[in-house]
Amino acid sequence: MKTYRIRKPKIVVIGGGTGLPVILKGLRNESAEITAIVTVADDGGSSGSLRESVKVSPPGDLRNVLAALSDMPKLYEDLFQYRFNKEDEFLANHSVGNLIIAALAEMRGSTYEAIQLLSRIMHVDGHVYPASESSLVLHAVFEDGSKASGESKIAIDRKTIDYVYVTNSDNDEQPRAARKVITAIEEADMIVLGPGSLYTSILPNLMIEEIGKAVANSQGEVVYICNIMTQKGETEHFTDANHIQVLNKHLNSDFVNTVLVNTEKVPEGYMDPDIYDEYLVQVKHDFQGLRDAGCRVISADFLELRDGGVFHDGDKVVDELFRLVFGAKY
Question: Biological process (GO) annotations (predicted)?
């Protein structure tokens, strides 16, 4: 592994959902050149509604990443992240940031351009790129041969997923990576996958053929941050090794170098099922299976409990990432 002493290490983080901003906030406080590559396959909630009505790429995950990397005052961030009440008729459940991204995308004719402009306005420390400049549709093929289309529909029937793939939402062309995405991956010292939903936050990015090939062929360290909990309709009964097996199957390559695994136990009955109803039980460990896949395993207490939910402790994870990227012994 390379050692970097003079320049900032280039770290690319790929994913979506609520886990990605946790890691980005920790990275922002360290000396690194950060690039976030964010999924554009979300079709639920405010993002899904705007995607259909304004014909804009789903803005929700991009909004959260911008906020995580921005140094704007707390009041501005709170306003950007503010979500209207469900009683507010046509504004119900929309966040201000989603509306701003949609407006700028319409003004500039491009979500990509809107995100670059907002990055400057919000003093974002790093680069934020949608995985593709077109909205994508995520498709799942289940082990029984049936299919489902749309990120929000895949987990409904709780069938075992065989594989997923993506298509453009507005044409039949092959999905392409957004500008600068491939260059960022090729120049990265480290590529971080997750934390986030395996099938609906991480794989939609890697299923863009250009991105998948670039990650699999990367000379940088590829790190997977394994989820702490299994997810209903996605990773039920999964071990940490099962996550890696799915990633390797989709890219037809044993491309993950290092896996970060939480070993701290979640207290029984801690999670609030009314808020976090998609999470089931803690992911089981299969360290031999991880090693058989060619992975270095870093197991530690990465757990943060707050607000009735289970999260990764961003500071602890980032500490490990920097030990890796600087080649420290541990």
Answer: regulation of cell shape
Task: Let me know: does 233 contact 157? Beta carbons within 8 Å.
Answer: yes
For tokens 């670039």, name the residue: 214
96 neighbors 79 (Cβ within 8 angstroms): yes
- pLDDT tens figures, 34-69: 999 999 998 877 777 787 777 788 999 999 999 999
DSSP H or E segment with residue 80: helix 74-81
Q: Which parts of 16-68 are beta strand (E)?
A: 33-38
Residue 169 to residue 2: CA distance in whole angstroms: 40
Domains of the chain: 8-39+132-330 (3.40.50.10680), 42-130 (no CATH)
CB 55 within 8 A of CB 31: no
What tokens does 152 get?
């929000």
Tell me what pLDDT residue 199 has.
Answer: 97
Q: Are 95 and 83 in contact (CB under 8 A)?
A: yes
Q: What 3-state DSSP class applies to 75?
A: helix
CA distances from 215 to 183, 223, 230 (A): 11, 11, 25
Beta strands in 87-160 (DSSP E): 127-130, 136-142, 147-149
Distance (Å) of CA 2 to CA 9, 121, 215, 295, 328: 10, 35, 17, 18, 10
What's the pLDDT score for residue 329? 37
Comparing C-alpha atoms, which of 60, 218, 21, 210 is closest to residue 131?
Answer: 210
Query: What pLDDT, in 10s, does the model give residues 241-263?
Result: 999 999 999 999 999 999 999 99
Q: What pLDDT, on the 0 to 100 scale, is given for residue 3?
A: 43
- The reply to whether omega before 73 is within 30° of 0 (cis) is no
State the DSSP string of 222-256: EEEE--SEEETTTSTT-BHHHHHHHHHHHHTS---
Distance CA 4, CA 2 (A): 7
Whether 5 shows a pLDDT value over 60: the answer reads: no
Structure tokens at 199: 């099938």
Q: Which pair of structure tokens corresponds to residue 149?
A: 């289309």
